[in-house]
Amino acid sequence: MIEKVNMKHPDKVADRIAGAIVDLAYKQEDNPKIAVEVLIGHGVCHIIVETSILLPIEKIKSAVLRIAGNVDVDCVQVAQDAHLARNQSKKIRCGDNGIFKGVPLTDEQKTLSEIARKIYEKYDSDGKYILDGEKLIICQSNAPTEELKKEYPNAIINPLGDWTGGIDVDTGATNRKLGSDMADSVTGGGLCLSADTEFVSDDLCWHRMDSYKDGMKVGQWNNGKLEFVKPLRYIHNQNDYFIEFENNTKLSMKLTPYHEMLIKTSKGNLVKRKAYKIADKLANNVGNSGSIIHNFTFENAVKKSKYKDENELRLQIAFCADGTILENGNKWTGRIRVKREHKKQRLRELLQGRDYKETADGEFSIFWVKPRFTNKSLYECCSQENLAIVYDEVFNWDGDKKNRLFRTTHKADADFIQFVIASMGNVATITVNDRFGEIKNGYEVKSICYYVHDLKSTTTGLRCTKGTPIRVNYLEEKEPSYCFEVPTHNLIVRHNDRIFVTGNCGKDLSKADVSVNIYAFLKAQATGKPVELCCAIGDDSIDGKEYSEIVEIAREYISKLGGFEKFAEWGLF
């Protein structure tokens, strides 16, 4: 999935004005030190310039009027910070802290860039375009929808109807569309998860990442708590390379190499680390990289229970486990047949004061009852109830209470009980015993059994151990990848029925260094491989090159485009 905006989009107008002011500085001096921020909209353009040289205000206003039309200009120029000035006083050094990434352009990104340019050639006004596989969305102002429909018959065009855009109806600010200018070559970011990774939604069900529909809520991790939110963005990419992490207990993840994993350090701090770096350490048995978090807590708000009291809910759980539906029953709609004494006693406790009948059948007792619902799905009967009660009761029936094990032949119930266990702050994994077709006691087994384990340990240590070693698999295969951007930047997801907490695709785009980003982008296109660089203010060299050489490479690229204003029009692709 990729978004592209044209040069008349309000944010791009702000970028172009900033670029034009930087161009003015380069006309006055070979190596000016300048940073420009612009906010524009509704007839006013606010500009702040941090600069080593004073620029004529008339020329700044002229550039603004040329790009944006008749607006009032409010411009403040201030001297560059003294510490930053000293850093650059004797030679060209890095002027920013950060991680900068270049990634080869995908066919999808190239295609959308061509579409955006083609539409802009005909309609030179505010426009935004999105391409997600075969799905094309065109929002083009001052253009008849029917006209665009003839050119792009399968596209979604102007969903709210014909419209007028621009700075008279919206505001724009510098760098807000940097992501759409640089594709995947932006700083920060969680990048993506495999399509078969699942997110949890507010229906308390797990859904594949590639099945997300607009309007759905997704589970974010907020300091240990699960919260359901509408994602700020849903991201879809094509990737040629994935890394798989798994062990025999509770770990299973399939990530892109640059995915930001959420790590809990030995001191209890939370940090983000790239998947490929963790993989390298594990493969080379180097140190302790911290731990993956598998647990969360969740308090579901029950507006009104479907049950008269708590015991009626607990009885329903018993019925789902050991009950039989009596479709033609006159007085009783269900019966529960149990052999174990603790189950018999438990049913007598739950049925005290209720209308029921108990009969004997050899070692078995049969309890004739009227359950609240003649439905044997735990999810259907209990998902909107107090999950703490469900957690407390369910191990009395299907499974092993002592060993905290739940058994069922229904996958939906296994998924639900896994969520219930996890919502209590514990860790739950699902294992499968595929007995289908086996002969047992003279009968053919016709079911698959799912085991849900309630585990004590809530994290997986990212270190090589003899007990439960972590396997790292490098997968070179082209397939889709997906992610969400959520406010906390941490997602609760599941892969192969194992839950984990990880970073998301939120981008931190503040103060991206132009020179290093351009260099990383160009190198990625030339090599066909992702490039990631880290630098600090004052660095003399990056990637084995003098910083002045990095600057010259970027300068040459900008010059070929025609200056910073031209660069701001379409960005790096």
Describe the protein's architecture and organization.
Helices cover 28% and strands 31% of the residues. The chain has 15 helices and 38 strands. The strands form 13 sheets. A four-stranded mixed beta sheet has the order 1-6-7-8. Strands 4-3-2-9 form a four-stranded mixed beta sheet, with helices on one face. It is elongated.
From the N-terminal CA to the C-terminal CA, the straight-line distance is 15 Å
Structural class: alpha+beta
Give the total of beta strands.
Answer: 38
Main sheet, how many strands, which sense, barrel? 4 strands, mixed
The spatial strand order of the largest sheet comes to: 1-6-7-8
Mean pLDDT: 87
* Tally of individual helices: 15
- Indicate the percent of residues in helices: 25-40%
CA radius of gyration is 30 Å
Which consecutive residue ranges, at least 5 long each, have pLDDT under 50?
A: 506-512
What gross morphology would you assign? elongated
> Hey, roughly how much beta strand do the residues contain?
25-35%
